[in-house]
Amino acid sequence: MKKVIGILAGSLRKESFSKKVSRALVGFAPEGFEFRIIDVSNIPIYNQDFDDENQVPQAIARFRSEMAAVEGVIFVTPEYNRSVPGVLKNAIDVGSRPYGKSVWDKKPAAIFSNSPGNLSAFGANHHLRQSLVFLNMPAMQQPEVYISHVSDLFDDEGNMKDGTTKDFIKKAVESYIEWYSKNAL
Ligand SMILES: Cc1cc2nc3c(=O)[nH]c(=O)nc-3n(C[C@H](O)[C@H](O)[C@H](O)COP(=O)(O)O)c2cc1C
Known about the structure:
alpha/beta; Rossmann fold; five-stranded parallel beta sheet; globular; binds flavin mononucleotide
């Protein structure tokens, strides 16, 4: 049986670089692993009444069951206002409840942050790490995956161009898989 790693992109827009990185990652899964993109686009904003009143929207139930089926997570996040985009934070919040039934617990995670500029979404990367501590997700420390100038990384068809950044991302995936194998419970 293949180990399934969920890939979550923190952007909804059609031409999102985070989505393009996510799609490229799917092709980098080594033997014995499946990298599965988990769609976060239709998840309603979390309202605790959903759980308290047993009226969980279908899209939330679906997301939780999709996440329950993965054994590790790679977050591919851009940065909004020096933090994690709301769509990704909302997915994290939705998956963390009801209390005691978090879909994140103990799942080894990696964060691949990216930006069109120089700073590579460093702020989002580290704010996300703060949530992972509380969610009890071990997070890969090294290599830190900061992808700058992500807008230069794709050709017109949305394929990742060959070069040092692609090589670095592939190596980061290899490191994650090696580290995952030691940290999976
Ligand atoms: C609301 C908003 C806030 C943003 N804040 C930041 C920021 O703090 N740092 C940054 O590097 N880029 C920021 N950007 C620019 C994004 O890095 C850029 O739009 C990027 O392409 C978004 O990721 P995506 O391509 O995956 O959609 C912001 C964009 C938006 C729409």
